[in-house]
Amino acid sequence: CLKIPELKSRILFTLVVLGICRLIAIVPIPGLDGGSLAAYLSSLPGQGGGGLLGMYSMFTGGALERCAIGALGIMPYISATIIIQLLTAVVPRLSKLAREEGGRPKLVQYGRYLTVVLCLGQGLVMAIGWENAQNLFQGFQGKLVLYENLFFYRLQTTLILTTGTLLLMWLGEQITERGIGNGVSLVISI
């Protein structure tokens, strides 16, 4: 498959974009001590950060335990897409729009707007969760938030997490259009 020039360029493009997605799961959010949380979770005997949070961290490529930019992952986009699909079956106006010519792109746009709303809400909840890490992670004794101004911390972290998810969403769409396809699925698997 590497002998065909177009296919080779699509594969290389996909690999480069997936490399960028990995960077998003590694780069920490400013003002958070993700290293201490990652060390704590890896020190748990036999669990390695297992449980519900470990499962979520797996879907984000370890970004949750590193307090990274991509800690929300691509899940808000998937949730928004599912919500729009369900609303299409329930709301007659959306159902009519889905059947019209040019209606599908409009529904995709609504899904993107809903993604932003979900990211802002989930990002704020995650920022507050990291702020109260002792309650969220049993036995964790460190302090993740390095800022004294909690309003600025919450605002910054919420916006960075939202931006990280939107960037992952956009990269997934680029893989679908210019790469080998199934971009969002590949972003989840990375």
What does this structure look like?
By secondary structure, this protein is mainly α. Helix content is 72%, strand content 0%. Helix 7 runs antiparallel to helix 9. The two termini are 22 Å apart. The model has no long low-confidence stretch (mean pLDDT 87).
Runs in which pLDDT lies below 50 for 5 or more consecutive residues are: none
Radius of gyration computed on alpha carbons: 19 Å
Q: Which percent bin holds the helix content?
A: over 70%
Q: End-to-end distance, in Å?
A: 22 Å
Give me the number of helical elements.
10
Overall 3D shape: globular
> Could you give the count of β-strands?
0
Look at the helices and sheets and give the structural class: mainly alpha
Would you tell me the overall average pLDDT?
87
Q: Note the run of SSEs as H and E.
A: HHHHHHHHHH
Biggest sheet statistics: none
Q: For this entry, what is the oligomeric state of its chains?
A: single chain
Q: Proportion of β residues? A: under 5%
In short:
With 190 residues, the protein is mainly α.
Q: Which descriptors apply to this entry?
A:
mainly alpha, single chain, 72% helix, globular, 190 residues
Question: What is the topology?
Answer:
Elements: H1 5-24, H2 34-43, H3 51-59, H4 63-66, H5 75-90, H6 92-99, H7 103-131, H8 133-136, H9 150-178, H10 183-189
